[in-house]
Amino acid sequence: MTFARARHAGLGYLPQSSLVGTLELARFSLELFDVPLDCRSGLSLSDCRGLFIELSTTNFRQYSRLFAGSLKASQRNIEGLVLFDSNVRHILSCGRLRRRSLHTEDLSFNHIPRIISAISLPFLYYSPMLILGIETSCDETGLALFDTQRGLLAEALHSQVDLHAQFGGVVPELASRDHVRKIVPLTRHVLAQASCSLGDLDGIAYTAGPGLMGALLVGSSFAKSLALGLGIPALGIHHMEAHLLAPLIQPGAKPDTARNSAQAQDMLPFVALLVSGGHTQLVEVRDLGSYSILGESLDDAAGEAFDKAAKLLGLGYPGGPQIAAKALAGDPKRFRFPRPMTDRPGLDFSFSGLKTFTLNTVEKLGELTEQDVADIARAFEMAAVDTLVIKCRRALEQTRVKRLVIAGGVSANDYLRAQLQGQLDAEVIYAPPALCTDNGAMVAFAGALRLQQGASEDLSIKPRPRWPMTELQPI
Fold first, then answer.
1. Could you tell me which of 60, 262, 380, 394 has the fewest CB atoms within 10 Å of its CB?
2. pLDDT digit string, tens, across residues 74-87
3. Containing H/E element for 318?
4. Is the domain of 207 the same as that of 286?
């Protein structure tokens, strides 16, 4: 079922005598349901005599006891429940109920486990959703199509590295203008790649923050305008939550290659290391969407420190890949850089001192040779990675968790991955390199999980350049 405000949705009760197959089940429930909801409502339970309970989709899972009590009081002879999409235009245009062959193995109880724990649902049909993901938080324009049944269908990414390289960092105004130029062509590209049209979309997920205000405005304005025109929901996604969920995506051509929310729940609990150009955080994840910040950077993020160190060494932007490439030829014993804030308790990070130490080393050497650059790059990478590994070990010991998820652009660093896997007594999970940097696939996936669980918002455009993860609602 599509839990979305722009879709009419409902529940109908079904006597046991009518359980004659899933297609008959769908037809029978459509006949029973006579009180559809408008686009401002949530989920309702009705019988042939009318509506007797209505719940907001946002709070649907929180009121499972109320829901179960209403069933017990009002329908003592219930034998089953059917969830379905009763939006006539959608069914006629896409023909999902008529075109798809429904089998019992398609029925899943995993999407609303708290409801299942309160009441028994012998039959449940969960309609697939096709989500367009839009990422424009900084210097990459990412678009992707994610289908909740078939997985990642298409993705496209435009990097602004060449645009900003001459400045040694991102220029916000140039980034915003480039997003405007690329967002429409990339949308057309992913739709063509997946052989889909705008009319096939069931929802849009876009990065609402944190990030650069101008860049966020481009993505949010485009998403909300497109959603209004298509009559489908648009949902703002937290950029770092999208990164955190990216390791759960398994790209590939075969159906069902992406882990769904139930499989994601099986990974809980875990500690996440979110490490990118703008953020370095350790997060305890006991439930998807419910996050506790264990530690974060007090000044420069790890990725930002890599960029600044690369600039000091005369290397290109972004600095992470440049430092890593040079470090391969470096002497690991020539220099020893400090491991900031590892000599004191706590899980916060600070990389500004490491940057200053790099600057002092460069100034002492004067004119740098190729080997000098390689040796400094090696020392810097080792110090930054050791700092991250030490903090991750502390976080795992503090939380008594045996699983670590790393995400963000710096998580693509091979040396970091090797050290985490070699030094930690924990399972280490990370995304494919293509999904480590900013991309539309992670936004589409995060949006799919939240839209399926009933998340919704109005059509106002409200990007959030600063947005604490602790303000998010559980998935």
1. 262
2. 444 433 444 433 33
3. none
4. no
